[in-house]
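Hey,
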Amino acid sequence: MPLTPKQINTFTLFKLPSVFFTGVRVTSISEEICTVSVKHRWINQNPFKSMFWAVQGMAAELTTGALVMSCIKESNLKISMLVANNKASFHKKATGRITFVCKDGLKIKEAISQAISTGEGQTCWMKAEGLNEDGIIISVFEFEWTVKVK
């Protein structure tokens, strides 16, 4: 059974408190897609009255990382996961509610399958797009995840 948003959000409270206390929440997760939402508030703003880039990065990474964690859980194996690289681009000021979406669940599932069958570490680039309430892209983050069977 894949992870649920409630399980992931509880995990962030205890293991990633900065994610939890800045208001980053998983709203949905499936085999292919994960959605994370965060609202611009005093706790996560920068001096320019928009969302701090690092909060956007936490939300974006969580969309990709939750998919990795869910695939690992489904495999019933001990598999390590680590971000090796990341890239980001910012297009508009982040105010209001920002929703990050990653649609690369099948890509990481394939990488984990390869890691299991070959016994060698694998890498997978995953993309998360941040959209404002009008559906306009605010920022785009890409994370290179490495996975390896322990």
